[in-house]
Amino acid sequence: MTTPYEEFGGSDFFGELVADFYRGVAGDPDLRPMYPEEDLGPAQRRLRMFLEQYWGGPRTYSEERGHPRLRMRHAPFAITEHHRDVWLRHMRAALDNQRLSPELDAQMWDYLVMAANSMINQPTNPVRGMPLDPPTPI
Q1: Which residues contact 119 (CB under 8 A, 6 or more apart)?
Q2: Quick one: which of 12, 32, 119, 135 has the fewest CB in 10 Å?
Q3: Residue 131 domain-assigned?
Q4: 35-51: per-residue pLDDT in tens?
């Protein structure tokens, strides 16, 4: 029985998907500032390891970093609906470059949308698309 990891194309697929995604992030004025490292390589490696493990591939992510705890790991960053949309736009472009079957594409996309929705941790100012200022203490 094959794993989803193998059905997607294994290491090559996940490597290409994540590399394409980070090419988009590298020049994005909304997302790039959220990455504290000058070199996006470590972030790229972490996302690749996470996705590979999630879809049944090597467990390198957990071996190196422990339980994924995605919401906790993203808590230091103000993530709004706008950030989610920009993240998904880059991921959609990266996924389109992979030319998966419609079934595999839908499976991956549904997961990515669910994951991106769960990362939102700040309300969005509908006028500017930016996080609302925190209330001023009295």
Answers
A1: 70, 71, 74, 79, 84, 87
A2: 135
A3: no
A4: 888 889 999 999 999 99
